Structure to design on (724 residues):
């Protein structure tokens, strides 16, 4: 946190699409630079949750079914709802369909709360910004090897070449393999295997002082197995059926893998009868061109292409009797297939005016995205087979402008507005059960239009203390749920349509960066209140007739989220850094009633939102010498309170509360061993071998039982690296 002179190091972020000091950005932001990512052992999506309290990386169908959740805002699996927390790579929204490997990154920034004016219409919960390392003016290279338990072997390399003063090239690659940690006692297969190869090429061209063009191309291929929601967590009893007017013949009558049997097996064994293969490819291309018209005005164009192609068999509900599987036993089709392709272009004009008192940015954003989905399903050992096969296309056009005006050296006001029009269509494809069937729409189309806005005040109380207040409004566009019947009606009428969701919030923040006595310190606190209307949530109602249960997306009338976010760090000694981050989130459906197929549903509590999260760390440099290198020790503890994995746990889907848990991570490093270019480290994650859950599938009311996703057990290993 501090340098050797005991001064707080400045952290630069791009939360408002320009470089600013973290201590003076009027937003709740947590930023992790390259060094912090290494120290905190952030190498994949799941690691971010420990590093950034308040960000929940929810797993529904396992380790390759991930959803980011911030301040109670997320997207339910099978809902078709756009994510409320959008991840970006170099300012281009990503379409990654599985877990990622983080390598050669410059920083990760997590923006909390609605970001609709500058980062699009759907970021009602927040945004996660990944920035890749840029080519430098130095010829350099590095090689890193990592080995550990579960036969972990990871190789990472980087080469940076300044071809000339105008042209620079950087190539980075990563390859990782690791055995799974869940044993399938039926098939003998391990679930959670990782096999992933990734590479990224970056080329920067700067022909003069005005023009800068950077091209980034990345490719990743995964070949492993899913963990799945394979821990049978609870069953739907006869009493539940009577209470909620269901007729499922109860789990206890025909599901062999009951809760009691699962508990005998333990957390890391399952009896799913089928496979769990996951194969995926992801591509991303970003071309960023910046042209300075003069010292005060610049034009920036961001061209993006992202694509993902996955074939994944998700072992959901790990009972010996296959109540649900991602395969169609009648047709022989195995595994979910999802193909996503997105093109985007953003043209910006930004600069300063009015004697430097006004900072502004304005632009136009265009995006076309197409997603082809094939979902084969079997229920109750083949008694019911179904296949959803559909294409969703989304065309987005947005105009935005935002400006900050400094009235005095200590007072500044910000206003922003974005107008978005989004056209969403769905088409039934060849393998759909609804294809060519009378009474079902073959193609549907809806257009959604809504503004996003921001009003804010910023006040510099002193050189070290900064306060802000924001009021914001944003929205999440509506659309179609591809797993629901293609009927031109909403969920209440048994159709596949759902309306847009709107969010308004107020956030007050206080930031301190300076010294307490001789001790460098940093502190951030944010208090917020959010009001959400027409909340997009999934449900699995029991439709009329003898058909399988279906997933529909309902618009729940009202929800409110309020909370406090706090993080602080201090260096009481020159060689010791201490830090803490904590969040309190109070989320509730203030009006959670809706009706599906004539049945009243009551939503609550809010799923995937732990009330409390806490992270504390201590980092000590125990030895530092120019001839011998630097030896450091780090300990980090993360705690999360209990969390529900169903939004109807108080009513329709009881027994879906996951218990609290605590994780301990340790790392010991020796940089520049004996003054050489070698570095070494010992690492451990979850060193106490805590058994815990990271999400679940709430299918009790439709299939008779709920299943949870177990978190990763203790992992440890050694890391060796060399810089050329």
């Amino acid at each position: 946190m501090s340098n050797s002179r005991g001064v707080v190091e400045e952290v630069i972020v791009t939360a408002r699409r320009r470089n600013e000091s973290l201590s003076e950005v009027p937003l709740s932001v947590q930023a992790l630079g390259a060094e912090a990512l290494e120290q905190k052992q952030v190498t994949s999506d799941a690691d971010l949750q420990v590093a950034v309290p308040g960000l929940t990386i929810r797993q529904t169908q396992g380790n390759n079914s991930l959803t980011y959740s911030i301040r109670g805002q997320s997207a339910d699996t099978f809902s078709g709802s756009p994510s409320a927390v959008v991840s970006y790579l170099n300012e281009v929204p990503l379409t990654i369909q599985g877990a990622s490997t983080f390598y050669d990154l410059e920083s990760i920034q997590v923006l909390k709360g609605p970001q609709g004016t500058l980062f699009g219409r759907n970021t009602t919960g927040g945004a996660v910004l990944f920035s890749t390392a840029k080519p430098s003016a130095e010829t350099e290279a590095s090689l890193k090897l990592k080995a550990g338990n579960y036969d972990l072997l990871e190789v990472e390399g980087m080469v940076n070449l300044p071809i000339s003063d105008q042209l620079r090239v950087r190539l980075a690659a990563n390859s990782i393999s690791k055995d799974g940690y869940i044993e399938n006692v039926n098939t003998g297969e391990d679930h959670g295997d990782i096999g992933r190869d990734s590479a990224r090429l970056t080329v920067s061209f700067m022909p003069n002082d005005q023009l800068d063009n950077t091209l980034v191309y990345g490719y990743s291929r995964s070949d492993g197995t899913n963990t799945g929601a394979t821990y049978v967590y609870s069953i739907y009893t006869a009493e539940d059926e009577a209470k909620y007017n269901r007729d499922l013949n109860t789990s206890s009558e025909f599901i062999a893998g009951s809760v009691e049997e699962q508990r005998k097996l333990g957390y890391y064994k399952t009896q799913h009868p089928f496979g769990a293969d996951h194969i995926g490819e992801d591509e991303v291309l970003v071309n960023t061109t910046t042209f300075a018209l003069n010292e005060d005005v610049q034009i920036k164009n961001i061209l993006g292409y992202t694509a993902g192609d996955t074939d994944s068999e998700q072992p959901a509900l790990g009972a010996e009797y296959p109540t649900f599987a991602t395969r169609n036993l009648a047709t022989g089709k195995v595994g979910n297939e999802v193909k996503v392709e997105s093109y985007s272009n953003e043209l910006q004009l930004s600069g300063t005016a009015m004697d430097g008192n006004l900072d502004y940015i304005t632009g136009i954003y265009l995006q076309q995205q197409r997603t082809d989905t094939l979902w084969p399903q079997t229920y109750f050992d083949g008694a019911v087979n179904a296949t959803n096969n559909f294409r969703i296309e989304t065309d987005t056009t947005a105009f935005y402008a935002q400006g900050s005006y400094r009235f005095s050296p200590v007072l500044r006001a910000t206003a922003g507005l974005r107008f978005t029009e989004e056209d969403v269509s769905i088409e039934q494809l060849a393998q759909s059960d609804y294809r060519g069937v009378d009474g079902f729409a073959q193609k549907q189309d809806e257009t959604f239009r809504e503004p996003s806005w921001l009003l804010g005040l910023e006040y510099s109380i002193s050189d070290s203390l900064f306060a802000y207040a924001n009021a914001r409004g944003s929205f999440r566009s509506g659309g179609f749920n591809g797993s629901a019947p293609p009927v031109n009606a909403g969920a209440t009428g048994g159709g596949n349509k759902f309306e847009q969701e709107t969010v308004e919030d107020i956030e007050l923040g206080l930031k301190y960066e300076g010294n307490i006595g001789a001790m460098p310190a940093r502190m951030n606190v944010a208090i917020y209140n959010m009001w959400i209307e027409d909340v997009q949530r999934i449900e699995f109602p029991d439709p009329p007739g003898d058909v399988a249960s279906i997933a529909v997306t309902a618009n729940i009338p009202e929800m409110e989220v309020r909370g406090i976010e706090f993080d602080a760090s201090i260096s009481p000694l020159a060689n010791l850094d201490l830090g803490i981050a904590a969040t309190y989130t109070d989320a509730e459906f203030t009006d959670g009633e809706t009706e599906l197929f004539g049945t009243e549903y009551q939503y609550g509590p809010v799923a995937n939102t732990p009330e409390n999260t806490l992270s504390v760390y201590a980092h000590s440099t125990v030895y530092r010498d120019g001839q011998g290198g630097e030896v450091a020790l780090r300990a980090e503890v993360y705690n999360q309170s209990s969390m529900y994995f169903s939004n109807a746990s108080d009513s329709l889907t009881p027994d879906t509360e996951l218990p609290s848990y605590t994780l301990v991570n340790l790392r010991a490093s020796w940089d520049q061993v004996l003054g050489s270019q070698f570095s070494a480290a010992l690492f451990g994650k979850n060193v106490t071998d805590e058994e815990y859950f990271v999400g679940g599938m709430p299918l009790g009311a439709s299939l008779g039982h709920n299943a949870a996703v177990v978190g990763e057990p203790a992992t440890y290993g050694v890391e060796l690296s060399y810089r050329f």
Summary: The two ends are 27 Å apart (CA to CA). DSSP finds seven helices and 46 strands in the chain. The chain has one domain: 12-723. The CA atoms of residues 327 and 334 lie 4 Å apart.
